[in-house]
From TrEMBL:
This is Cytochrome b561 and DOMON domain-containing protein. It comes from the Eukaryota. Its cofactor is heme b. Its main location: membrane.
Length: 425
């Protein structure tokens, strides 16, 4: 393997480890204010977490083991004029929405707060009305209120758990939505991973989270995102910058083609690996899908593969198809860069990754690449205008020899020949 390719691989590994190292967990301890409010309401805390990346909901619980009585307090901000907050338990083997026995509080535009019990079925998933119904939980002290000091809307209730609910492996589900209708009817929540992932299995005796597919998928999604950001979003654009600016002007480099091909090849390998992980995630996620994001991903992979084939199917200098091949190569390359940045942004929006880390990292990488590209473009266009309109005196140089400047340095090995350099009169 050539030294440029080795250097690029080491760079990718370093960036992968550094980016992955600051991804944080998605469940944290409750905030001090929420915990203090729970204690003021005589809620002895066994389990208390704040789910930053999953709707920002905070949940506190206490289990009375002998009586199997569970006290819960669930809080979240409902910042729109209308909204709803839901929490429930699912006795099925898997923590998911369908099958959940839910408590839902609704906020209306006029300020009224209503709350009731709901049985979430498969009909709810396909868009049928969700109306209050009987559930198999014995509920008492159920209310929905607003706490001004927290700016939280809070569900509080006491539940006596039937024996079919395993306290050492309890599936609880929560959700936040915006749209509501009359007759205590919450409408569909937003379709994002922060909503689809709002489930967890916990051991109420220890307060610890148990391993789940959702947690495993989240880590795999992060790997998918990191690989695509590095491959499609960083290395491919850098390869374009090398080919455009290191061939002749402003920084001629004898080995520009080797660096260009190495950068593109490593970017293609890393990006394709991330794409393959994304395909696997799409097939493994049986309860939801993101077709637009997937379509963009297939487009990027397909045309990136086509770009790699251009390196092998390269006509000779005298071949009449070389001009069309070069035009296609350039158009597809620039289209890939635009599509990659759009799809990476879509992926971050879908995953609702931590804005404190992921968005700055993504915009930092994109901004640096765009800044370098812009600087080189300004210099190149400055030279082009000087050549086009004969402004070399204004530009601070002598008038170049027109015959020498009309000969363009184009060699397959990327070398700039001495005979191709301008000769001053």
């Amino acid at each position: 393997m050539s030294p440029p390719a080795c250097s690029l691989i080491y760079l990718v590994v370093f960036l992968f480890l550094s980016v992955f190292s600051f991804t944080n967990t998605h469940a944290h301890h409750c905030t001090e204010r929420f915990l203090s409010e729970a204690k003021q309401r005589n809620l002895i805390i066994t389990f208390c977490k704040r789910y930053v990346e999953r709707n920002g909901v905070e949940i506190a619980m206490y289990l009375h083991e002998k009586s199997r009585r569970l006290d819960i307090m669930v809080g979240a901000r409902l910042e729109e004029k209308t909204g709803w907050l839901a929490w429930g338990l699912n006795p099925d083997p898997e923590a998911r929405m369908v099958g959940t026995q839910a408590l839902i509080g609704i906020k209306y535009m006029n300020g009224n707060l209503l709350w009731d019990r709901y049985n979430i079925t498969s009909f709810t998933k396909i868009g049928c009305q969700l109306l209050p119904s009987a559930i198999d939980l014995n509920i008492s002290n159920f209310n929905f209120s607003y706490i001004a000091c927290l700016q939280y809307y809070v569900i509080q209730a006491t539940i006596v758990l039937p024996m079919k609910y395993d306290v050492e492996k309890l599936n609880h589900v929560w959700q936040v939505g915006i749209d509501v209708a009359e007759r205590k009817e919450p409408k569909m929540h937003p379709r994002g991973l922060r909503n689809y992932d709002s489930t967890e299995t916990i051991n109420l005796r220890t307060g610890k989270r148990l391993a789940s597919r959702v947690h495993s998928f989240r880590r795999i999604r992060e790997v998918h995102g990191i690989l695509n950001i590095i491959g499609w979003g960083m290395l491919l654009p850098i390869g374009v910058i090398i080919a455009r600016n290191f061939r002749e002007f402003p920084l001629p480099c004898l080995g520009w083609q080797r660096y260009h091909i190495s950068c593109q090849a490593v970017g293609y390998i890393v990006g394709s690996t991330g794409w393959a992980v994304g395909i696997w995630l799409g097939r493994a996620s049986k309860h939801y899908s993101f077709p637009k994001h997937g379509t963009f991903g297939i487009f990027i992979f397909t045309f990136a593969t086509l770009q790699m084939l251009f390196f092998k199917c390269k006509p000779s200098d005298r071949d009449e198809f070389r001009t069309y091949r070069n035009m296609s190569h350039h158009v597809v390359g620039y289209s890939l860069i635009v599509a990659s940045y759009i799809n990476i942004r879509k992926g971050i929006n879908i995953m609702h990754l931590d804005v404190k880390y992921w968005l700055p990292a993504y915009f930092g990488i994109a901004g640096c690449v765009a800044f370098i590209f812009l600087v080189f473009e300004i210099v190149s266009w400055f030279k082009f205008l000087c050549d086009k309109f004969g402004l070399w005196i204004i530009c601070g140089k002598d008038i170049p020899n027109e015959e020498a400047n009309s000969r363009k340095a184009s060699r397959e090995d990327g070398k700039v020949q001495p005979s191709d350099t301008p000769i001053n009169n």
